[in-house]
Design a protein that fits this description.
This protein is globular. It has a six-stranded mixed β-barrel. It has a two-stranded antiparallel ribbon with strand order 8-9. It contains three helices and nine strands. The N and C termini lie far apart (34 Å). It has 131 residues and is mainly beta.
Length: 131
């Protein structure tokens, strides 16, 4: 498991911004902080918040809803549903394994973080993006 940090553009029904995200192969889903989500998309809130447990297995943060986002990542367009966290001390956004697997995005780690790269050699354009 590993993480790579990048600045990407995200857009939703409320607007667009650039955010620093972590591509995290240890995250099962793609998550965004509530304060960032509120800037760009309408959040469809869950009836009850869902506990999301971190890697330590003990610490939980609340997932409060979902929203649809368009993401521009190194020239590649991605449309996905992201899970909204009620957390203010986490990264702005985490691109999780579900999104990376769905679109064929890989992580290549170098000897230093500067050498880390996103691998788009197996990138797949979703059919709904072609319509």
């Amino acid at each position: 498991m590993g993480k790579i940090e990048r600045v990407i553009s995200i857009s939703g029904d409320k607007g667009s911004i650039e955010v620093t995200v972590l591509f995290d192969s240890g995250a099962s889903k793609t998550f965004i902080r509530k304060d960032i989500a509120n800037c760009v998309c309408t959040i469809k809130e869950h009836e009850k918040p869902i506990d999301i447990f971190l890697a330590d297995g003990k610490t939980a943060i609340k997932e409060i809803g979902i929203c649809a986002l368009e993401m521009k990542i190194e020239g590649h367009d991605i449309i996905d549903v992201v899970h909204v966290l009620d957390a203010d001390k986490s990264a702005a956004m985490y691109i999780g394994w579900s999104t990376m697997q769905r679109y064929g995005i890989g992580l290549k780690f170098g000897k230093t973080p500067k050498e880390d790269k996103l691998d788009f050699s197996k990138f797949v354009v979703e059919l709904n993006e072609l319509i």
